[in-house]
């Protein structure tokens, strides 16, 4: 099937399919005599796997590792769990960082007078020089 049909069948846009090929996440498919990409059902299955991993926030490198584990029928499930557990740690760190950003911004917004005056604690904070180590 051509890239448009593969995109439709997998839920991955043609642009992302080309990107995944460019970064060697998926192998380049065979080409027809006229030079068009020709995807198999197996390629579509792999693209669906990638789409699901991406929806869970895995990076390209993590997806590469997961694909390798998925394709290795002799791998230990512990190896897969290790990748998932590390990703959970990374997600929890990002959640904490986002929560801190949200709290800071909410605090600044709460202290904004929300009137016609030019004084603005939000802009003042953004313009403030960062602390050492920030």
Can you summarize this structure?
This protein has six helices and two strands; from the N terminus they run ααββαααα. It has helices at 3-10, 14-22, 41-55, 60-71, 77-110, 121-127; strands at 30-31, 37-38. A hairpin with a 5-residue loop joins strand 1 (30-31) and strand 2.
Top keywords for this entry?
single chain; 134 residues; mainly alpha; Multidrug-efflux Transporter Regulator, Chain: A, Domain 2; 2 domains; two-stranded antiparallel ribbon; 6 helices; 63% helix
Explain this structure.
- It is a single chain.
- With 134 residues, the protein is mostly helical.
- The protein folds into two domains: 75 residues, Multidrug-efflux Transporter Regulator, Chain: A, Domain 2 (Orthogonal Bundle); 59 residues.
- The chain has six helices and two strands.
- The protein has a two-stranded antiparallel sheet.
- The longest helix has 34 residues.
- The chain is elongated and about 70 Å long.
Structural class of the helix and strand makeup?
Answer: mainly alpha
Q: Which sequence of strands runs across the widest sheet?
A: 1-2
| Tally of separate helices | 6
Arithmetic mean of pLDDT: 92
Number of domain units: 2
Which regions contain 5 or more consecutive residues with pLDDT less than 50?
none
Write the SSE topology.
Layout: H1 3-10, H2 14-22, E1 30-31, E2 37-38, H3 41-55, H4 60-71, H5 77-110, H6 121-127
Antiparallel strand pairs: 1-2
